[in-house]
Description:
It is globular and about 50 Å long. The N and C termini lie far apart (37 Å). Helix content is 71%, strand content 0%. It contains eleven helices and no strands. Helix 2 crosses helix 9 (135-157), helix 7 crosses helix 11 and helix 9 (135-157) packs across helix 10. The chain is mostly helical.
Amino acid sequence: xxxxxERLTDKLTDSEGPGTRRRRGRRPSGEDTRxxxxxxxxxxxxxxxxxxxxxxxxxxxxxxxxxxVNHWFGGKRGLFLAAIQAPFDPTALIDAAISGxxxxxxERIIRVFVTAWDTHRSRFRALMRNIAGNDSxxxxxxxxxxxxxxxxxxxxxxxxxxxxxTSLCASxxxxxxxxxxxxxxxxxxxxxxxxxxxMIAPTLQRYLTADITSAG
Length: 216
């Protein structure tokens, strides 16, 4: 992951700027095309963020047909996760957690995420630490977590003040990830999964479904 962030930083600080980069020639197929898309994705996501970046724009930067994004990665989300070398797809975890009683959705969210984070602890730790040290990468990840992950929850359960609730939930999950896997805060770092669920889920549930009409 460190080399990925270094490449992203190098591209963003290129003295020629993104507007003067030469368009790459068309790649024939196979791994060359995949590698070109990953390199272009790092540039475009770093410049524009996850939401604003488009499949067509990334493919154009790579000099390949936009259909190759779906062929190799299944769409923009898959390309983003591959580019940052994410150890798992957080949207799949959210989809699994959403199903069920809305009054206990926070427990399911914390449980599936901490389980996945613990399973891939070393890779997730490296990802979080490197993103924390790169402003552009951090902004892109924040954009992705906010819009492609947490918003799926608030949209599905249908709550008021979805924007505020989404940002509060994102702050809780990102903060938990940083504290447990980057800062190594004890006893949180060594706590078992069910203890973490018991301690964090009530706050996350309040952000999702409690009355916050007087907030903000």
